[in-house]
Amino acid sequence: MSENIGNNEISRLSSFKKANSNMISLNNRVYTPYLDGSRTTKVRHNYTLKQVEKIITDGTPEQQIELSRYFFMKDGLYKRLVIYYATLLKYTSILIPNPGFGKNLSTSHIKKRYFNALNFLEKADLVNKFNYIAQRVFVDGCYYGIIQAAEKDKLVIIDLPIKYCRSQFKDLDGNDMVEVDLSYFTTLLDSDVREQTLKAYPKIIRDAYNKYQKSGSSRWFMVPSEVAVCFSLYDGAPLFLSTIPAIMRYDDAVETEAERDAEEIRKIIVQKIPHMQDGRLVFEPEEAEEMHRGAVNMLKGNKNISVLTSYADVDAIVSKTTSESSANNLEKMVQNVYSETGASSQIFASTGSSTLSTSIKNDLGLVMVLANKFASAITKITNQLFANSNIDFKYSILPISYYNEDEYLDNSFKLASSGYSLLLPALTLGMSQRDITNIKELENDVLDMVESLVPPRTSYTESGDVGAPKKAEEDKSPKTLANEKSLDNQTEGGSN
321 lies in a domain? Predict the structure, then answer.
């Protein structure tokens, strides 16, 4: 008898284990889609935080450039910072002619050179070139290029591979001298590709490479400054490398917060299978399995709900977090990213900080260092093409960004009203020097708009004392109305 009871218990236990295994399996199938990683926003990097910190402090220039390029391609925060600085300036420029002593700019041959120089700058597409080069400087730390063509109707600059370039010296004018490692061309194993690549470079580079191949001379060739350009900021390292560890910590914090949010919204439905008072089961394991399967099928469309069916009493212990505290931690971490660059996070998500204007001015000061190098290079090229003993030129990039253009325009109008440059307001509005001349000739000589359109009477168009326009009664403040009433009473009392 006892042996039969024992066998029955073993049989029931075996059935329960099988049913329990099936219940767990079904439960996992409901729960698994939530854990497939599809809801996470974290970018998985190939670098560890320790590796990044070592590259920043002790890495070679090649390693630092590779790290910067990787994060520029993979990380939105890093790319946004680079693009912000690379495109901060509008690259509004002005060409200033400098006639020789005693020379008159209106002289036909001098005037012709000035307009030829303007035509050259118009066709050079400099704004796009500056944006591209600035991006490369902020990502790689430095940009090397070869002037393939600098003619009166075009300017072509092709990139040099930064891995095979260096700059250790300056010429007498303070320009960085560029050295090219001629072994770069030997890395192009396909002879046809190598030949086509060499043809893209100026003759002086091709001749230097042929000499290097034949005589085995030094592989480093110093390119004349007339055909090479080099732009960098300070030490030539990628400027925002120090932000990468902070960005990685922020990414980790975002992922942790996402997981924490997921835990808070997930729910578990528990079905407790009752027992009789003497401990015997009301439902057999197979029956409990069917109850579990029915609940799972009913709720399988909701990925945030899991089902647990158990004979035991179950308590759920939930770890609750404070949303406000978590949000504050994330805010501090993302602020730390911008603090590493010196940029204000208000630029990307403004909340009306009073320090935003000062931060943008600091950013403008940084990019103007690079812009002045651009201007110096274009001045040099322009003078090579168009200067002579009678005239030379100065090309300048104005400190106008998309953030301060209204203020700059207002100040330009004030200066123009005092006799200063009339070109600056038009340049600030996006016109070129040729545009201004052409538009005025069109309006005055072709359309005769001076006679056709008479400007309205304002303080700018008449010399009389017009004064400021008076406000309507409903637009005046209560204090203004009270002051006017008091003044009227005093006037009436005085007349009496």
Answer: no
Q: Across the strands, what pairs with 394?
A: 96
Residues 231/143, Cβ–Cβ less than 8 Å: yes
Contact 140, 67 (CB under 8 A): no
- Tokens 């590709």 appear where? 193
Tell me if 11 is assigned to some domain. yes
How many C-beta atoms lie closer than 10 Å to residue 362's C-beta?
A: 11
What are the tens digits of pLDDT across the range 393-402?
A: 999 999 999 8
Report the predicted TM-score, pTM, of the whole model to 2 decimal places.
0.68
Residue 443 CA to chain centroid, in angstroms?
Answer: 40
Instruction: Tell me how many domains the chain contains.
Output: 1
DSSP 8-state code for residue 470: P
In a domain, 302, yes or no: yes
- What DSSP assignment string belongs to 310-353? ESS----------HHHHHHHHHHHHHHHHHHHT--GGGTS----
CB atoms within 10 A of CB 259: 13
- In this structure, are residues 262 and 338 in contact, taking their beta carbons and an 8 Å threshold? no
Nearest to 142 by CA among 222, 237, 78: 237
pLDDT tens, position by position, 11-20:
555 655 555 5
Q: Which domain holds residue 302?
A: 2-34+274-310
- The answer to whether residue 288 is domain-embedded is yes
269 φ/ψ angles, rounded to the nearest 5 degrees: -95, 125
